[in-house]
Amino acid sequence: MKNIKLASVDGREPTVVRAGAASIGRGFAVIAGPCAVETEEQTLVTARAVKAAGADLLRGGAFKPRTSPYAFQGLGMAGLKILGQARAETGLPVVTEVLDPRDVSWVAEYADVLQIGTRNMQNFALLKEVGRAGKPVLLKRGMYSTLEEWLNCAEYILGEGNPNVVLCERGIRTFEQYTRNTLDLSAVPALRELTHLPVMVDPTHATGRPGLIGPMSRGALAVGADGIMVEVHNNPSEALCDAKQALTIDRFTDLMRGLRKLETFLAEAESEGEVTG
Amino acid sequence: MKLEDIRRKVDKIDRELLVLLHERMGLALRARRFKEEVVDEAREEAVLERAGRLKLNLVEQSFGQQLLRTIIEESKRLQGEARELVAFPGEHGSYGEVAARRLAPTAAHAPCMEYADVFTGVEEGFFDLGIVPVEHSLEGSVTQVNDLLTRTTASVVAEVNVPVSHCLMAVEMSDYRDLRVVYSHPEALAQCAGFIARHKLEPRPFYDTAGAAKMLARENPRAAAAIASPLAAEVYDLAILKEGVDDGPPGSTRFLLLAKEPRPATPGKCSIIFATAHQAGRLFDVLRLFAESDINLTRIASTPRRNDPGNYTFFLDFEGSPGEKKVARVLKELETRTIELKFLGNYPIDDVTGQKAAE
Predict the structure, then answer these.
(1) Which residues in chain A have their CB less than 8 angstroms from residue B200's CB?
(2) Distance between CA B303 and CA B314 in Å, rounded?
(3) Structural domain contains residue A5
(4) Is B253 among the residues known to form the active site?
C-alpha cells in the first residue's frame, strides 16, 4: 500500500502497547465496561465485576457520539472523574472516547487509552491532536472504511510522534439488517500482513446482539486478534445507551472463563506447531 | 436573563455578603486588641452616620442602619468572647488557614498578607498565635520565614504538616474548553508547570493562591481559572475542575505555630538556631554533642547571616524536651560552643505525615 510508511510491517517487530498494568499486543487483552458512564455506582459496580472476571482494561464513555442530538450525550468531565475513581479503586487502566480536539488534553488527564470512535476515524484534526497527547490511542475502523483508509488514519497519529496505536475492528455496513453491522473478521489476519500494530475486535458493536458476542469473541481469539472490547452493564435493560447489546455481568464472567480456556488451548496448539497456514 | 440566571446571581451575592461579613467579624476581633472596652459609642455613631450618607434608592436609610446595627451587635458579642486570635499568611482559604484549622480549630483565624506581620503581631500581642510555613517537602526552606525566625522573640509552640493538594478551579458554569489563563502564587504555578503546559494555559503570577481564587470569584475575568487549595474553592464557591494538578509526587508544607510565651516542656521535639565561629571543626563540635548524647536530629538547615557575610546561621530540630536531663545538658554545653544560640521552642511532634492527613 502506498503512503503507509509508519504503520506498515516493513520488517518491524509487532508493536506492544502498554497502558497502566496492561499490555495490548502480547497475549489476549480484554477491555470491558459500560457503553456510557451513567452514575458513580453503575460504573464502580461494573468495574469491580469486570475486574473480578479477569478483564485487563476498563471501558466507559464520558463523551458519547450519538446518532440523535437528543439522545444522552454523556456526563462529560463528571464522567471522567468517575472513571478516575474506578481506575484508582480497581487498578484497571481506562479506555475512553474523545470526540472533540478541544477535549483531548482533558480526557488524557484521566484516560490511559484515548479511543477514536468509528464516526471520527477520519476526523483528521482530532487524529493529529491525539497524536500529540502522549497517550496510547485505540483507533476504531470507520463503518464504511477500507483497510487502506483505516491505516492512513493510523498514519496520521503515528506521524505526530505517537507510536502507540491499537486498531479495533468493529463491523462494517452491509445490506444485512439482522446484525447491527457485519463483523469483518478477515480484517484481523489481513492487517497482520499489512501492519505491525495490534488489532482488536469489538463484537458488541459489530453484532448488536448479546447472543452473538460470545461466538464472535471466540472467533476473534481464534483468528489471532490481540484482544476484544466488550460492553458490560450491571443492569443492561436500564442502560442509557445501547441497552440492547450489553452483556450482563454473569454472562461476561462466563464468556471470560471460556475465552481464557480457549486461549490456553490455542497457545499449546501453536507451540506444538499445530496451527499453521 | 432567565429566572434561573437571576436566582444564580442572587445566590452568589448572598454568599459574597456572608464571606464579607466573615472578613468584617475578623477585623472586629483584631480591633478589640487596640481598645480598652468592647463598647465604643462614638465609633458606632460614626459608622451609622457614614452609612446614612450613602444614597441607594433600593436600600432605605432606616433599613441600612438597622442592618448595620445588627452587625455591630454581633461584632460586640464576638469581641466579648475570649476567643483566641490566630494570624495566618494569605487570604481566607490559603494553605496557612488549613494549618490554622488543624492547630487551633476553635480560634478565630485572621489573614495576614506578610510573614513579617504575623511575627510582629504575635510579638506585640495583637494576635495570640501566628502560623508560618517553615519548609516544603519538595522545595525546602521558606527563606523569608527562616530569616524572620532568627530575629523573633516569639516561641514555637506547635507544628503541623499540611498536604499540598493543588486544585484547578473556576467559577461555576465556566467551560474548561474556554480556559486560557490560570492565576496562582508563583510557587504553585511552578509546581503545576507540566499541567499548565499540557492544557496550553498561560500562567499569571498572583500574590497568593487563595487570593487568586478570591479575585476569580469577585471579578470573574474571562477564560480564567485559579490553582489553590480545596478550602479556597469552598470559601469562594468555585467549581473544582481537576484535583491534584501538581506535577510531582504529593508534597506537604510544614507550618509552625508561634506564641509570645513558650509553653511548658512537653515530650516532642525542640528547635534551635545557632552560629559557630568561623573555624575548622566548630559545626562538627556541635553536631557531635547531639550524636554522643544519642539525640536524634530531625532537620538541619542553614541560612546566610545578614550582618556577617560568608558565615551561616544553622537551624536544628531534634527529638526531646528541655525537661530531659541529656537535652538540658546539651543545651548548656552549646552555650560555650556557639557564638550565638537561640532556643526557638519545644512542642509535640506532628507525626501525621502530609500524605496520611490527605487521606
Answers:
(1) 105
(2) 7
(3) no
(4) yes
User: At residue A267, does pLDDT exceed 50?
Assistant: yes
Is 90 exceeded by the pLDDT of residue A208?
yes
Residue A4 located in a structural domain: no
Q: Are residues B7 and B71 in the same domain?
A: yes
CA dist A88 and B228 (Å) reads 23
pLDDT of residue B275: 92
DSSP state for residue A7 in the 8-state scheme: S
What residue numbers bound the domain in which A173 lies? Answer: 17-268
CA B37-B43-B49 angle, to 5 degrees, is 155
Give the residue-averaged pLDDT of B193-207: 96
**B353 occurs within a structural domain:** no
Q: Is residue A9 part of a domain?
A: no
Domain containing B317 equals: 85-163+253-347
User: What confidence tens digit (pLDDT) does each residue in A219-256 have?
Assistant: 999 999 999 999 999 988 888 888 789 999 999 999 99
Q: What CA–CA distance (Å, rounded) separates B325 from B332?
A: 11
The answer to whether residues B134 and B283 belong to one domain is: yes
The pLDDT value recorded for residue A3 is: 87
CB B273 within 8 A of CB B334: no
Active site residue: B195, B255, B290, B318, which one? B255
pLDDT above 50 (res B284) = yes
CA contacts within 13 A on the Cβ side of B257? 30
Q: Would you mind telling me the total number of residues written for chain B in this entry?
A: 359
Per-residue pLDDT for B145 more than 80? yes
pLDDT for position B359: 39
Residues in chain B whose Cβ is within 8 Å of chain A: 176-177, 198-200, 241-242
pLDDT digit string, tens, across residues B80-136: 888 899 999 999 999 999 999 999 999 999 999 999 999 999 999 999 999 999 999
Q: How far is A107 from chain B (nearest CA, A)?
A: 11
Please check whether residues B171 and B131 belong to one and the same domain: no
**Of B212, B243, B274, which residue is a domain's last?**
B243
Q: What is the pLDDT of residues B215-250, one digit of tens each?
A: 999 888 889 999 999 999 999 999 999 999 999 888
- pLDDT for residue B248: 84
| C-alpha–C-alpha distance, residues B277 and B305, integer Å | 12
Q: Does A107 touch chain B (CB under 8 A)?
A: no
Report the CATH number at residue A237. Answer: 3.20.20.70
Cβ-Cβ pairs closer than 8 A, A with B, add up to: 15
Cβ contact, residue pair A106, B199, below 8 Å: yes
Are the C-beta atoms of B354 and B136 separated by less than 8 Å?
no
Chain B contact set for A108 (CB, 8 A): 198
Grid cell for residue A23:
499490555
* Tally of domains in chain A: 1
Q: Does A105 touch chain B (CB under 8 A)?
A: yes
Q: What is the mean pLDDT of residues A143-161?
A: 97
Q: Do B200 and A105 touch (CB under 8 A)?
A: yes
Residue A1, in any domain of the structure: no
- Asked if the structure places residue B357 within a domain, the reply is no
Where residue A272 falls among pLDDT bands split at 50, 70, 90?
confident
The residues, any chain, with a CB within 8 Å of residue B112's CB and separated by 6 or more, are B87, B88, B89, B90, B118, B121, B130
Could you tell me which chain A residue has the CA closest to the CA of B199? A105
Q: How far is B186 from chain A (nearest CA, A)?
A: 23
- Answer whether A153's CB lies under 8 Å from A160's CB: no
Task: Collect all residues of chain A within an 8 Å Cβ-Cβ radius of residue B199.
Answer: 105-106
